[in-house]
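Researcher: Structure for this, please.
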Amino acid sequence: MAPNFQITFNRVENSIHLKLQGDFDGTSAHELINLLKDKSHGTSKIHIHTDGLKDIHPFGLTTFLKGFKIMNGCADRIVFTGKNARDLALPSNRWSL
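Model: Predicted structure, token format:
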């Protein structure tokens, strides 16, 4: 994991909010995927806030997209927000600035 990468997790009713901070590399992508696998059950919406990301490494993005393919039914519940939403959003996913 990038030494400065951190995920802040917060559950609000039926949704979760993940605030990403630091550099997003391959290990950071695995950490995010694992957290989503562990914590997304029973949620109606997953908000991934990207304003705190500094560098999104191409390998991290590729790792995240590949890892996400194995998570059935989760992608349609994710909303990416923030200045890096477009960079991290899954194809055909929703995002807002």
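Researcher: Any notable elements?
Model: The beta strands are 6-12, 15-24, 45-56, 78-81, 94-96. The mean pLDDT is 86.
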